[in-house]
Request: fold
Amino acid sequence: MADMKIGAYICKGCGLGERLDCDELATIAKRDGKAQVVQQHDFLCSEDGVSMIRNDIDNEGVNRVVIAACSRRAKTDAFNFDGEVCVARANLREGVIWIRPDEDEFQETTQEMAADYVRMGCAEVKYQTPPHPAEERGCHEAILVVGGGVSGMTAALEAAKAGYPVHIVEKEAQLGGAVGQMWKDIPMHSPYTDPVEPVTRRLIEEVEANERITVHLSSRLTKTSGAPGRFSADISAESGSTTTENFGAIVMASGATPYDASKLPELGYGKSPDVVDRVEMEKLAIEADGGPIKRPSDGKEVKKVTFIQCAGQRSEKEGHLPYCSGDCCLTSIKQAMYFKDRNPDIETEVLFTDLRTPGAPGEDFYRSGQDKEVTFRKGVVSEVVAGSNGPVVKFKDLILDEDVEEEADLVVLATGMVPNSGVDIELAAGPNVEGEEEEAQTDSEGNAIEIPVESVLNLTYRQGKDLPHLKYGFNDSHFICFPYETRRTGIYASGPVRRPMDTPQAIEDATGAALKAIQALENAKLGRAAHPRSGDLSYPSFRKEGCTQCKRCTVECPFGAIDEDEERYPKFNEARCRRCGTCMGACPVRVISFENYSVDTVGQQIKNCDIPDEFDEKPRFLVLACENDAYPALDMAAMQGNSYSQWARVIPVRCLGSVNTIWITDALNSGYDGVVLMGCKKGDDYQCHFVKGSEMAHYRMSKIDDTLEQLNLEKERVETYEVAITDIERAPKLINDMAETIDKIGMSPFKF
Amino acid sequence: MSDYNQQMIEKYRGNFLKEVEANVEEGDWVKMCMQCGVCSGSCPLGPHWEHPPQEIFMMIRANKREDILSSSSMWMCTSCYNCIARCPRGLPITHIMHGLATYAKRLGLAPKEQPTAKFAQLFWDNLTKTGRVNELKLGLSLYFMNGFGEGIKTALKMKDVGLGMLKTKRMTPMEMLGGHKCKDVKGLQAMLKKAEELEEARIGKRG
Reply:
């Protein structure tokens, strides 16, 4: 930019004026930072202070603003200049005066810290340009809902109510899903005492009556391409016809399949016709329709029924589900009531190890079951065998500590649910990258839990056909922090496909996912980012001349945003991008950058920190802190009055995944004594906002030792940590540890 | 008595939970136990029970009629009310234990040599004779509860205490000759008899 004009504004409020020599900081901004306009103010975030800055922007042509005041996380409303100018925040309050003791002996180093942050702020802002919305903007408003069960229909109705057209694609010939096959459902409203009509009947009527909703029955998605705002989907009916529709966002509500009870011969399934699973139990109830329930073998009225909880679930045994499906306990109580409500003399026994009844109806419905004299017995079933008059259940009663054998007319296995989450693309990417036919996967992974072999979405994304799985095959990106989010922007998981759940939870889920889908397509219309940097206009671009087609960005992008074009160059799909910068950190030739966040914006901050020569005995070390968790933790540490080493210089990064190793080598080469990286928790129970960013960073840093060896430096000079937002005491301690390490191993030999 | 037991067995064939609900004080709470075990964990005498309350509730549901009714467990309850205070489901456990004990005695299944049961009978008999507890007689009958020899031994062991009580006029040997009584003993006894009749009638009607 030819006419770049930097304005540096130094705040003297909140004790900054008393603790720091602000005149000196102003000189530094002018001399070292090359700021053309430098102003001091007693209370910068006041109306007067902000209008001073605004006036300089409007009348003096200032287009790069450095605010030397508080943390970038504070006063964001006051210092919001609507993206017209670039803003850098030199963190003098939380980063300097609050984190350092107010004592004369530390005055000199505190002032040095502040001076460095002013220099760094001026350097950062010099390499930024104001972000512009992505060129690529989708304009399609319709929402695609995959699956016509409770969750899918609710999502469709909610989106339609908000004014968006919706298409439901359902693979079966009728709507309703799993709940549609029930005789009755668990109550959703007080009093939670008796089974009620399944909600699907009402939902189907509403969906059919809604003119904004189009339903495609007996259909599947054979191809889905594009990005939020401009998805294109081929909907193929069983009859063979295919229609192509455009969508702004997708809700994946493909639900779950009941666990295959034929894998449980030890529980008598398949051996005795009177051992049924929960779905078959519903069928028996529908057949009876309020009359006496008859057992399948000889049609005799059932007088004693035994429910076996956790059948093939919560078990590490091969072929079993390791997780709890969440609704089976309530379902068994409900099914026991089918018998008790008709005839209280029928014996109903529920054999459980831990009775889990989550959700609003849970405890009340359990009590109601007890009140109706359903017998709950804590026991582990070892075997079900055929007896003379019906199946015999052998179990160990855990309370009475004895082995029991009991004959029943009917045995119901409370089997779990397996998500219809499509192909596990991470497994698929393993042995055969080109995604061989599905049979190959089942063969090579035949002993895994259950690999749904059919793709649900058939995405044309480079990283694979379906949503990445989180755990146990469920699609979600993080069911505590970011429910409904997946690792594919604009595609939201809802209902039991994202975690096991019952009807009320699926309804709540669907409402949330519909809202997410609307947000995604509206953001796409404006060329802005979706969660978690919602509203961010910057997006990554790359310098084609420099690209070596190594494909690391396409592989490492946690969100599958980057495809390949015909010439095998990366093809960024801005609307799919979450702006984490993991691609930027991955690029070995450093050609990927954002308008306001790039290898240079951070690299120049590193370079512009003043490194005293080694005789000064003032070490400097760099802290790259994730702005989502580690940086706020340090801010909060400052608010709590903790302190950390005066030798640290902290630079926030979007995600530790965006850290390019060049920053580390540059820092060490230019005389920094150490580098501390602080990212979020990685792994299965990660806390990284960008799912894989922290993991990628840790992986990359595990290879940094070679570089250190080449430089003849000690390994201890670079440390990578997982820091949570709650680590208010630990984070400063980690910084102090580095100061101690440097004290021990000595200063870097690279100082000039 | 055993006829009555037989009668009950036939009436509730195989469903002891129903039998408890109908015949035991607060028995309709038993089905609401959720087997958390807080009662057993809270009981100060827990380690001495053959079957702690949680187990008793499970046994009721598992139809272990004889085992429960002839058990000494519920006779061990000292009415400290810890279990009631702590039960998350609000079961009146202490009352249920006493209810079970009463029912077992009524059926004639209560353990014969259980000291609590024996003491309870002695106390009742002592009290209802005059309408006042005769402490001297109650004490002596306790000494001789387990036979003459043991009674003498206990009496000798306790003689210093007895003499001390005599000296300080805490005990008078005259009580041996009948002792003090309430104003209308006849009336009291008639009242108790009537109550017993009513109880019999109630059980008869329901049982």
